[in-house]
């Protein structure tokens, strides 16, 4: 449009011409083939002679609505050099990048024209020491480059990406140097907002695995896995991971855009899809998956304090509750869906899970109504009735819950479904179930993110730490001790005997179990919002387990929040609070008189802590003799 109001439309019509170039094939799942001999110098410059080119084919107009991209673009964020190069077979060169990553490689090579180089990508190695790709199913993790000859050449695939740690190169002229391959890490280019460090190498690696899992699966949409022939926006994964993601990366724009995909996929009767963008062939309405249409807006509001995300999703959230109520019997949801996906020999009844999530989603919609000055009464009344139905159907008078699994108790406790008198018996039973498994978890996708928070909330932080430090299957430490550098889809993607799990469902980069990050950041480094958006901040580190010191930083919208603590003969804590915010700082202590401080006003003693109110600035605390006296 010009200044005088006139418009001009510049289109690609029959005057455009086309020719076959060096890019022979390209697909995000099937790799790229590039023949450098077919490069045409100057083809994009004025005056180029395109006499031999063919007229372009005119296609029909696009009928779909085209909108501007609102989230950050996907870009190459960093580069990784190999840590080792081996030759497992003659002419087969294996580059180990030391990190499961997502992106592509830069290949540097010199050789004769026509030499074809095959670049194969893998997350892990097989028993023979070569790239293992059976778990990628029909995805073809191969890029092929044909040399043009005449000197050093550089190849960087542009129209594909892979999930990999290992790069297997065949056809390379001679013996490649380590510099022949460089890993190019790509993801949605939003800034990272968290640092986390402790004196525990295990927990530091776990944090790294969580962050790399996020990095590898935030590519325009939140995928379930970036390597195999799927790479879809499965809603259950981001349902459990969005709170952790909001700590680690500025996720507001990314997930706000994705929520539009959720709304676009919502059915006429209010059901949210199991995958967004919705492919139309994977179903909808599954408990813990479709609920992401409610939980993700709420989690974003808690992280960033922006009510607009609630306002944008309010009609869709209400329609979801209407759908759940309509498709319930006596306010009990049917026993269908994925359940507590990939739990360990602990099958929580699906009707228990679905009804618990029905209550939880209703609770969040009622809370959203309060925030938006809408009427919460219908949802508060519905929530009361769902809880009553849940307890009648699934809870015995002594607090035992149908299924008697860790996840059953975790959901009932964390979603506040039980009468006050049954909370302690239920919490005690949860701890007993953990102990019966020799202090191991049995939870899957839906139970795991709530397991440690529930233990802490019910006074069992010591058990939470015991699970966090566990090194044998099933545990986070088990994965790390077997070389994991991202989160696995299964607790035993590599079994204790060294063999692989079923190739049909065995990703080595799948962030759902990384949802433990939220508990780590709130309870080890001790940084949590006391009000949406961190306008008010809760600082409450909980020393325990094998951790004797920790430090962290979260870049809130108001500025960085930092903590640093150590536990020796004394307990020391240093906290920095940004301007325009206030904080409550919970300092572990037996008595308030044991605490010396620079900054802060004592409010009270509570739950083994001296609680102080502070404003912005840096504050120092020391508990003589430590919190245990």
TrEMBL record:
GO terms for biological process: carbohydrate metabolic process. GO terms for molecular function: alpha-L-rhamnosidase activity. Residues 2-77 form the Bacterial alpha-L-rhamnosidase N-terminal domain. This is alpha-L-rhamnosidase. Residues 193-524 form the Alpha-L-rhamnosidase six-hairpin glycosidase domain. It catalyses: Hydrolysis of terminal non-reducing alpha-L-rhamnose residues in alpha-L-rhamnosides. Keywords: Hydrolase. It is an enzyme of class 3 (hydrolase). It comes from Streptomyces antimycoticus. Signal peptide: none annotated. It holds the Pfam family Bac_rhamnosid. Residues 526-597 form the Alpha-L-rhamnosidase C-terminal domain. Residues 89-187 form the Alpha-L-rhamnosidase concanavalin-like domain. Its EC number is 3.2.1.40.
């Amino acid at each position: 449009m010009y200044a005088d109001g006139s418009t001009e439309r510049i289109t690609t019509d029959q005057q455009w011409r086309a020719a076959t170039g060096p890019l022979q094939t390209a697909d995000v799942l099937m790799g790229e083939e590039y023949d450098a001999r077919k490069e045409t110098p100057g083809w994009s410059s004025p005056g180029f002679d395109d006499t031999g080119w063919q007229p372009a084919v005119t296609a029909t107009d696009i009928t779909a609505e085209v909108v501007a991209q609102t989230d950050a673009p996907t870009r190459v964020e960093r580069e990784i050099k190999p840590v080792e190069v081996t030759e497992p077979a003659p002419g087969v060169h294996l580059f180990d990048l030391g990190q499961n990553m997502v992106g592509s490689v830069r290949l540097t090579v010199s050789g004769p024209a026509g030499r074809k180089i095959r670049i194969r990508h893998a997350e892990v190695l097989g028993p023979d020491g070569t790239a293992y790709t059976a778990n990628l199913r029909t995805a073809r993790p191969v890029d092929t480059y044909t040399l043009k000859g005449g000197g050093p050449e550089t190849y960087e695939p542009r129209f594909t990406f892979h999930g990999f740690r290992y790069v297997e190169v065949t056809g390379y002229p001679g013996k490649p140097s380590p510099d022949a391959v460089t890993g190019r890490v790509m993801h949605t280019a939003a800034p990272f907002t968290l640092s986390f460090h402790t004196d525990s190498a295990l927990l530091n690696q776990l944090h790294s695995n969580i962050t790399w899992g996020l990095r590898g699966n935030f590519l325009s949409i939140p995928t379930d896995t970036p390597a195999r022939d799927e790479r879809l926006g499965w809603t259950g994964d981001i349902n459990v991971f969005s709170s952790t993601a909001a700590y680690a990366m500025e996720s507001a724009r990314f997930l706000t855009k994705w929520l539009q995909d959720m709304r676009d996929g919502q059915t006429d009767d209010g059901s949210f899809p199991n995958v967004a963008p919705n492919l139309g062939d994977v179903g909808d309405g599954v408990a813990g998956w479709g609920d992401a249409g409610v939980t993700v807006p709420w989690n974003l509001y808690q992280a960033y304090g922006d009510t607009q995300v609630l306002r944008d999703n309010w009609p869709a959230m209400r329609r979801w509750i209407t759908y759940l109520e309509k498709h319930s019997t006596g306010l009990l949801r049917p026993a269908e869906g994925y359940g507590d996906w990939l739990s360990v020999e602990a099958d929580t009844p699906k009707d228990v899970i679905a009804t618990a999530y029905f209550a939880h989603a209703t609770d969040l919609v009622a809370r959203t109504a309060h925030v938006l000055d809408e009427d919460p009464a219908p949802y508060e009344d519905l929530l009361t009735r769902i809880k009553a139905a849940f307890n009648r159907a699934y809870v015995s008078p002594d607090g035992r819950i149908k299924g008697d699994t860790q996840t059953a108790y975790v959901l009932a406790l964390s979603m506040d479904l039980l009468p006050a008198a049954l909370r302690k018996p239920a919490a005690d039973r949860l701890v007993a179930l953990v102990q019966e498994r020799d202090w191991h978890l049995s939870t899957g996708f839906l139970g795991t993110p709530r397991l440690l928070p529930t233990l802490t909330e019910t006074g069992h932080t010591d058990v939470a730490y015991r699970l966090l430090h566990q090194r044998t299957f099933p545990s986070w430490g088990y994965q790390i001790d077997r070389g994991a550098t991202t989160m696995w889809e299964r607790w035993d993607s590599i079994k204790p005997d060294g063999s692989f799990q079923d190739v049909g469902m065995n990703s080595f980069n799948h962030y759902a179990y990384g949802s433990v990050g939220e508990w780590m950041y709130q309870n080890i480094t001790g940084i949590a919002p006391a009000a949406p958006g961190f306008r008010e901040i809760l600082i409450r580190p909980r020393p325990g387990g094998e951790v004797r010191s920790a430090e962290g930083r979260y870049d809130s919208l108001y500025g960085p929040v930092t903590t640093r603590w150590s536990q020796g003969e004394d307990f020391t804590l240093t906290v920095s609070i940004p301007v325009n915010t206030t904080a409550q700082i919970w300092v572990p202590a037996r008595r308030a008189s044991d605490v010396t401080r620079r900054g802060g006003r004592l409010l009270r003693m509570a739950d083994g802590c001296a609680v102080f109110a502070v404003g912005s600035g840096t504050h120092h605390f020391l508990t003589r003799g430590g919190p245990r006296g």
